[in-house]
Amino acid sequence: MAQGNPLIEVVGLKKYFGEVHALDDITETIYEGEVVAVIGPSGSGKSTFLRSLNLLETPTAGHVRMEGVDITDPKTDIDMLRQKMGMVFQQFNLFPHMTILKNLTLAPMKLQKLSEADANARAMALLTRVGLADRAGAYPAQLSGGQKQRIAIVRALAMQPDVMLFDEPTSALDPEMVGEVLEVMRNLACDGMTMVVVTHEMGFAREVASRVLFMDGGRIVEQNTPQELFEHPKSERLKSFLAKVL
Amino acid sequence: MIAAIDIGAWFETIYAWLQNAWANLSSDFYLNFIKEDRWKFLVRGLGVTLEVAFFAAIAGIVLGALLAIIRTTADKAGRLRFLNWLAKLYITVVRGTPVVVQLLIINFVIFSSAFIDAVIVAIIAFGLNSAAYVAEVFRSGIMSIDEGQFEAGRSLGFSYGQTMLYIVMPQAFKNVLPALANEFITLLKETSVSGYIGLIDLTKAGDIIRSRTFSAFFPLIAVALVYLIMVVVLSAGVTRLERRLRNGAR
């Protein structure tokens, strides 16, 4: 595993929902330029893990450091750090009351103080990249699921983040739209973006990821390069999981 | 032949009756509206009603939004617990007592020794009353917005307040517009009890005319019509606003 500098360091992360241990003492590091796929059965804690990385979930214990800054420290300006961590949701979560262009320019204009012209130029370049420049004036309700998710990806990219977090980005899509979204993610990975992807798309994990984490019961049970993990699973739990999904 | 004569007499009777009724109506109309320029009384009353309703509505929106933000911040983020408790108490008390009683208390208890214009007192009373209802309207609107919208805003780096302002509130406002319009229609009509604190609003003006002329029909129907027209115009305005805001919505 060729590795850059550590980007996100997770140390002893625990998250309890009452009696349920959604995350049970996770220590893991995401390095610059990596594409980390997180797989596992539902309820294994993979979404909670991802959402803890930008503090959408507040951990019960443990630390998450982004570029050396402890985001779990109450004194940290979490809003500043989140600007560097793009996030894509299963349900897209586009802003329905704004045009596509406005969805992309809102955060850069308000948070990075870009002029409208600069923000528009950045947005149009991104829209062109995902083949949706002609929909800039449309509203989210007028788009297909696949288009919405591509917009959601470039909305996050418009903030020029250092890492992109994907929470099951294709799970809410009709099957014929999965491809177009994965294509955008594949291109993003090729451009060297650091990505953490919670996914059920084993093909994508195998092909695009540089490392795959297998989670079960709130722990990272096994991790390896995609080839090794999928060809030679070591733990029984991973073997039975792969037998079901492949 | 006999039948024909009867019909002729019958028509004549009806005609005479109609003539008489018309004469009565027009003299009644003259008495209630034209004589001593009584219509000006109604116009001034209408002015007071509009003034009280308008400023009370603004006070209601501002204070109501504030209460709603306190309530939802407490529910969503678990902060502002004490303020939330106060807000809940306020809403319970205001919604649990009649607006006339609140108006009387504010006028005769709270401002009993202060020389404050009755219009101001009414604006304060109706504004405070409306705020409690508006707060619950706004709160239901904010709660109706999917949590994902909130998370999307926060994940881009917006603060709690910015997320509320740019993303949640505009959508919530659109959702609650019909309920909000309903509240303002209620408010406009509720100001008709302003006479209790000696304010001559539209209702009181009509009632004063009635007591002077001893004829109830015209002043009261006129007052009712004016309220009706105001509400119809307000509703039409809201419908247009709704249509304009609806573009692009799901």
> Ranges of chain B with pLDDT <50 over ≥5 residues?
none
Helical/strand content category of chain B: mainly alpha
Rounded to an integer in angstroms, the radius of gyration calculated over CA atoms of chain A is: 18 Å
Average per-residue pLDDT of chain B, rounded, comes to 90
Shape summary of chain B: elongated
Largest sheet of chain B: none
> What percent of residues of chain A are in strands?
25-35%
Number of strands of chain B: 0
CATH architectural type of the domain at 35-176 in chain B: Orthogonal Bundle
For this entry, what is the oligomeric state of its chains? Answer: heterodimer
Describe what this molecule looks like in 3D.
The complex is a heterodimer of chains A (246) and B (250). Chain A contains 9 helices and 10 strands. Chain A is α/β, with parallel strands linked by helices. In chain A, the strands form 2 sheets. In chain A, strands 6-7-8-3-9-10 form a 6-stranded mixed beta sheet, with helices on both faces. Chain B is mainly α. Chain B has a domain at 35-176: MetI-like (MetI-like fold, Orthogonal Bundle), CATH 1.10.3720.10. Helices cover 84% and strands 0% of the residues of chain B. Chain B has helices at residues 2-34, 38-77, 81-95, 99-110, 118-144, 147-156, 160-190, 202-213, 217-246. In chain B, helix 3 packs across helix 5 and helix 7 runs antiparallel to helix 9. Chain B is elongated. The chains are: A alpha/beta (246), B mainly alpha (250). Chain A binds chain B through residues 54, 56, 79-80, 82-83, 85-87, 89, 91, 93-99, 106-107, 110-111, 139-142, 155-156, 159, and chain B through 146, 148-149, 151-152, 154-159, 162, 166-167, 170-171, 174, 247-250.
